[in-house]
Amino acid sequence: MKQQWRTLHQGITKLNFSQSNLHGKHNYDSVKYGSKFLIHCNTLIAVNGRHGKINEAETIFTNMPIKNTASWTAMLTTYTQNRQIKNARKVFDEMPQRTTVSYNAMISAYIRNGCNVGKAYELFSVLAERNLVSYAAMITGFVKAGKFHMAEELYHEAPLEFRDPACSNALINGYLKMGEVNEALRVFENMVERDVVSWSAMVDGLCRDGRVAAARDLFDKMPERNVVSWSAMIDGYMGKGFFQEGFCLFMDMRREGLVEVNSTTVTIMFKACGNCGRMPEGMQMHGLVSCMGFEFDNVLSNSVITMYSMLGCTDMANKVFCTVSNKDIVTWNSLISGYIHNNEVDSAYGIFERMPEKDLISWTAMITGFTKSGRVKNAVELFNMLPEKDDFVWTAIISGFVNNKEYEEALHWYARMIWEGCRPNPLTISSVLAASAALVALNEGLQIHTCILKMNLEHNLSIQNSLISFYSKSGNVIDAYRIFLDVIEPNVISYNSIINGFAQNGFGNKALSMYKKMQSEGHEPNHVTFLAVLSACTHAGLVEEGWNLFNTMKSRYGIEPEADHYACIVDLLGRAGLLDEAIDLIRSMPFKFHSGVWGAILGASQTHLRLDLAKLAAHHINELEPKNATPYVVLSNLYSAAGKKIDGDLVRITKNLKGIKKSPGCSWITMKDKVHLFLAGDQSHGNIEEIKATILTMYREMQWLLFQQDILGYTWCKTTLLLHTLLNLSMNPCNEINGLRVESWSKLNTVSVTLTFVITKVQLVKMRFGKEVDEDFIHIESFSRKTSRSEINNMEDITRFCNLYVDLDFQCRVLTLENIIELEAANATPYTQNLKGIKKNPGCYWITVKDKVHQFLAGDQSHGDIEEVKATLLTMDKEMQIFFPIFCTA
To answer: Which Pfam families does the UniProt record give (predicted)?
Structure first.
């Protein structure tokens, strides 16, 4: 009999490791015939439970004539291992005797499956004899549930012999997973006894937090290291771009020989070689791994394929791919992504068609590849072939339209995505916001913003950054700034977006102040940051600040200025009249001449009437962009301005003989779901006479406000100033202001249509200063003088100039009757009037609605519908907040 059970026990043990069905049948037969040896039955239950054979385990447990505590615990563990918590709790409740082991099993089950920390703590509270496992499991549960204060309390309640290292490690890992590195470090430093797990977890946490130097200090102090600590430190170096340090550390790991390199470490090295563009080291790693006897499983092979693809060696990637015997879907996708990364779309599609099975990642990669190469039609065809689509596939096709500047199509496909019931992700939202910003489609953008609020994504950082960019490009820098203030932890992209928004809308000093705030918060600027700040300095005329920033790029931050940065600084010098200095800077550029740089010189030459430099700039632009009509037009105008009309005509004739045509300016606006499109010089719109009449009417009604500035903290700026300029343009058939030709008829009509639809609702618009504007404030008289000097080049300059009147805290509102009374009272200089007995005639204003004239006098509130008027004006306040950015940008 002993020999018989020894054989059975050996069979059970063998089953535990080999999962042999033959042994399983033999063991089941033994139970079926009523074996009374509990140890073997309990082992059978445990073995079947570990292999997921719940029915077999239940059969054994049910047929056992006698059960002990170990039997109940084995069945309980079987259910918990297979996530059948209800059945596990049922067994737990039916147990005649419960031990610490059974309590721990049930507590751990609640923690692992859904983190039901409440029920877990109920069991923990009634557990009399708690051990190390009990405290560690419960602390882990509290940490996973985010209840760190309760985890800390329980940690301090635990006996000292249980606290270190297991409970401390649980607390450390919990803090690190939540990103609370400093809290984890505090627990680590207070530990009396640390093991290699404690040290490795802390090194990895510091590396993930970007504190590589602190991690290295800790790493050097470790009494012993395992492969996890080595890999964490190497990955920390590689993640921060310190390739040489990481590579040397890997070689030290091999030289010491105390810890064997595993596949995780090697995968980190392959990824780093690819990301950092280190071809020699990558090939060295490939050969080294082969010599070390590593069996190239799919994970390692995929890493090598990805590495060679990142290095641009698709041939080598393909060779490695061909050597993989058992290719999985990740292997196929790795090669497809590699070809797409190197713009070899046709090769990628060839691999795609050969795939035995395709998943959504394969389809998404291929769609992205087609859109990346500009083949949007192929991407759409592939998209329509896809049987099932998730949010990532939709995002790929929508982003493709945006990247190819097909913004209307992007919005159309987004609407189709919503209609088909697919929930957009943050990347989708960012793409459609970019499309809305490019089209200045404010209504669509506002609808998307509403969807963001409904989906509770308003605090997603990437979406907040996209909203900042959208509102800035739409001219509504106030809402952009409000969203920026709501960002809990702004990153470099957040600061770049708001700085660029201020720069685009003429708030040069605000852009500089945000740049300084960015530095004080510890964020390092990048190429995009400096481009935005230099642009702000250019439009604000801050020559000294711009020049200092340009020099700071390389000296302080090690950033080499690119062509766009040179174009900005050249434009800055040119606008300030320092054209000779700008030419010297161009000649010192470390790379070939850029059309944008010479374009800046050309524009400055036109402003300052430097015909010699205009000819030089036009010559270089013609070499770089032979089909560009701008240098011909500018040069012809300059010749005419210099009294050389014949030379100007010759330039235009030359342009015509070469077949070069200037693209007409185009503007559009959507009103009541109808798009109104205007081209420069185009007067074919059906309501063109009504448009002109509207501008004339509004000009007459608002003319008396043009020079009323800074009254009781209010100023009349953007609307009146823009109307004054546009009126001159619309009434002048040559599109000239004080002798300056302005090609902006299309933008004029766009604003005019806007006014046509809004005039029946809004008669007066005011902008309120939240605080005094210092150097940004420029008087309207100075604008008139600037216009007479021909320094206003285009409508963008006019809009930027208008924006200088407005500080961050301004609010766009309708002027109520009370405000009219205050303005009139403030403007009457009451003390002088009273002494002289002079009475001021009250201001009079009227509007015709439904053939009825409504007249208002200053201070008069006798109108029969005065309360309704006030309520209407209050309601319009919110409408104007939405509408005004389009009004100003146009």
So the answer is: E_motif, PPR, PPR_1, PPR_2
